[in-house]
């Protein structure tokens, strides 16, 4: 038990500090459990190699994988983006309408498409709504993330946390008969209440607590405060870089500097300019700090000639499309854990990073050596075709919708029918339907229709096959659609929950929490579990918090004579609605940079919301399921 607690402590430290990517941390946990398990050097954790690797074959892991692919198929048709454009037309310049449109679209959709890709799709849509509507994006992006979490609690498939919690509940059901896997709409009635109450909070109180971190109508040069890092310089006649290509000139200058544009005879050239030869008299637009510029002048390499002060001065007049965009780095991107130098980002996309935001900090100098993290937002300058390539790559979220997006709109009916089938075969009570039909028609064989009820894992995998067969997805796209770090995270932490149960750790922790039953009623203990899960999820993965908290919650319920299923639901809702920090839930990371938020902005808006929903959820569980 002590060994397992030590592994849990190590996991918490690694999750919080991010010394290792969270999926690598999960695999490390799995390896330690097996090394110190039944088939390892000593049987401390009671985990065999079969149990240690069971996360990979677990139904929750496979279901999440299939749902990610199905969500990708929906996004490829452009249906969410089309709804987003309708939303934009409705919103106009009225903040209340903008909030209503943002919440009204992201919430319900997140019940049927995994909420993480929903937010990834809608970030550029909502950012455009804000800019067109003369509103700060800061007023809309946190509501977008929070609303997607509300919506995720409408159905079993709204978030991977629900699917994992359902699997853990089913496994614990072997010991506790009251527990079972969730049905598709098991908690929809409570989910609707959470969606309505949370939306009302965001519409009335929440947005007033949000500062305008990104001022209205402010361009990127001002917003990122990079004016002093942008310089125009003329290449001197005897400069050593005359005759060099732009790429060689950058390599030759051993300073933190980038050549953004070359201006020659009134014509402006932007990326890709790496192979353009520099001539005497050329004007170079540089990103460099003042000491670097001063050293270039002292070497008689360049003569300073002022600098661009607005976006317009960085975007050539003869190019109608934008060349400055914000790019969000999602989980699973090849950039995560890399620096701009080691990732060869410039070479891959003919793009230059002018600055980036990381966990609320704006980085403008010495960027090449900084490690990129999930949720970082890069301010990128590139040619329009390079920006299009970035938009089409799942490694990035470009916070601006392309003017001519390439969607498979003709496949919308196919995708809708497939998702309806995936949900329908799980949700419809085929046994009851068969019995009713048998009674009406007299055909006894119809009672066997209960066999049509299939697990969500089976229908989701069938949906993946149907997506490819119908042309909604190309075969090669199904691999790109999977967030493999999420899959490895699930596979790695599932054995940790098993070890916590088998070594008696869950029993011990449950006994300690159950002791509060001497001072609190069962409803109070349930509320404590909701709050504790919310706090833990704020610093570690939501999936990890479910695995750790569910066995303890069930054991606590058993010892105080309460309904274990009520405690399972409390933990599930708390883990799936983590509002307190930007790192507790991936959708918060997606909006962190584009909204220009600081860490405390999430606390300011999320803490009252978390407290409000803790009361609503706990009372709702007691009303619908009883204690």
Question: TL;DR of this structure?
Answer:
This protein has helices at 2-17, 22-35, 49-52, 54-57, 59-77, 79-91, 95-109, 115-132, 138-152, 160-172, 188-209, 220-223, 246-252, 290-298, 311-314, 345-349, 384-391, 412-427, 430-441, 456-469, 477-481, 484-502, 505-514, 522-537, 542-559, 564-576, 586-592, 599-624; strands at 230-235, 257-264, 267-269, 283-288, 302-304, 324-328, 351-358, 361-363, 377-382, 397-398.
Describe the secondary structure blueprint for this structure.
Elements: H1 2-17, H2 22-35, H3 49-52, H4 54-57, H5 59-77, H6 79-91, H7 95-109, H8 115-132, H9 138-152, H10 160-172, H11 188-209, H12 220-223, E1 230-235, H13 246-252, E2 257-264, E3 267-269, E4 283-288, H14 290-298, E5 302-304, H15 311-314, E6 324-328, H16 345-349, E7 351-358, E8 361-363, E9 377-382, H17 384-391, E10 397-398, H18 412-427, H19 430-441, H20 456-469, H21 477-481, H22 484-502, H23 505-514, H24 522-537, H25 542-559, H26 564-576, H27 586-592, H28 599-624
Antiparallel strand pairs: 1-4, 1-5, 2-3, 2-4, 6-9, 6-10, 7-8, 7-9
Helix pairs in contact: 1-2, 2-22, 5-10, 5-18, 5-20, 5-22, 6-7, 6-8, 7-8, 7-9, 7-11, 8-9, 8-27, 9-11, 9-27, 10-25, 10-26, 11-28, 18-20, 22-25, 23-25, 24-25, 24-26, 24-28, 25-26, 26-28
């Amino acid at each position: 038990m002590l060994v397992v607690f030590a592994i849990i402590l190590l996991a918490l430290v690694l999750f919080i500090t991010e010394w290792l990517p969270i999926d690598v941390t999960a695999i490390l946990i799995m390896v330690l459990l097996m090394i110190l398990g039944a088939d390892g050097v000593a049987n401390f954790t009671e985990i065999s190699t079969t149990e240690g690797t069971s996360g990979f074959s677990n139904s929750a892991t496979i279901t999440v994988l299939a749902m990610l692919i199905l969500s990708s198929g929906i996004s490829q048709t452009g249906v969410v983006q089309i709804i987003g454009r309708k939303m934009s037309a409705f919103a106009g310049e009225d903040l209340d309408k903008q909030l209503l449109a943002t919440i009204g679209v992201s919430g319900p959709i997140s019940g049927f498409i995994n909420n993480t890709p929903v937010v990834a799709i809608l970030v550029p849509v909502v950012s455009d709504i804000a800019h067109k509507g003369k509103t700060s994006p800061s007023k809309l992006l946190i509501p977008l993330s929070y609303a997607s979490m509300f919506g995720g609690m409408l159905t079993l498939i709204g978030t991977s946390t629900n699917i994992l919690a359902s699997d853990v509940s089913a496994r614990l059901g072997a010991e506790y008969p009251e527990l079972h896997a969730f049905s598709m709409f098991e908690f929809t009635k409570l989910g609707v209440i959470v969606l309505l109450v949370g939306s009302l909070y965001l519409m009335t109180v929440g947005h007033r607590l949000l500062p305008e971190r990104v001022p209205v109508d402010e361009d990127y040069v001002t917003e990122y405060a990079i004016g002093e890092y942008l310089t125009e310089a003329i290449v001197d006649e005897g400069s050593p870089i005359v005759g060099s290509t732009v790429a060689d000139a950058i390599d030759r200058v051993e300073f933190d500097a980038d050549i953004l544009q070359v201006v020659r005879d009134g014509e402006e050239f932007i990326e890709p300019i790496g192979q353009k030869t520099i001539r005497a008299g050329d004007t170079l637009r540089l990103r460099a700090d003042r000491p670097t510029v001063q050293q270039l002048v002292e070497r008689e390499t360049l003569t300073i000639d002022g600098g661009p002060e607005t976006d317009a001065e960085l975007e050539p007049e003869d190019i109608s499309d934008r060349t400055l965009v914000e790019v969000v780095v999602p989980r699973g991107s090849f950039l995560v854990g890399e620096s701009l130098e080691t990732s060869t980002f410039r070479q891959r996309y003919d793009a230059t990073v002018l600055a980036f935001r990381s966990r609320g900090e704006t980085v403008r100098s010495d960027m090449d050596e900084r490690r990129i993290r999930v949720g970082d937002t890069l301010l990128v300058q590139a040619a329009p075709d390079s920006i299009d390539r970035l938009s089409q790559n799942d490694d990035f979220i470009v916070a601006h919708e392309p003017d001519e997006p390439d969607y498979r709109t003709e496949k919308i009916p196919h995708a809708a029918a497939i998702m309806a089938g995936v949900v329908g075969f799980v949700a419809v009570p085929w046994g009851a339907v068969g019995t009713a039909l048998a009674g009406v028609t007299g055909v006894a064989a119809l009672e066997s229709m209960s066999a049509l009820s299939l697990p969500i894992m089976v229908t989701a995998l069938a949906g993946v096959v149907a997506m490819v067969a119908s042309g909604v997805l190309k075969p090669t796209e199904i691999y790109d659609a999977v967030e493999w770090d999420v899959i490895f995270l699930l596979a790695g932490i599932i054995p940790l929950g098993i070890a916590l149960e088998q070594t008696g750790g869950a029993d011990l922790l449950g006994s300690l929490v159950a002791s509060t039953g001497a001072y609190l009623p069962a409803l109070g203990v349930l509320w404590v579990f909701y709050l504790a899960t919310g706090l833990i999820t704020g610093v570690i993965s939501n999936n990890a918090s479910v695995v750790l908290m569910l066995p303890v919650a069930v054991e606590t319920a058993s010892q105080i004579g309460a309904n274990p299923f009520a405690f399972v639901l409390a933990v599930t809702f708390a883990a799936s609605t983590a509002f307190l920090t930007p790192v507790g839930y991936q959708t918060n990371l997606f909006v962190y940079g584009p909204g220009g938020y600081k860490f405390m902005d999430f606390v300011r808006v999320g803490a009252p919301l978390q407290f409000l929903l803790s009361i609503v959820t706990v009372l709702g569980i007691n009303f619908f399921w009883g204690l």
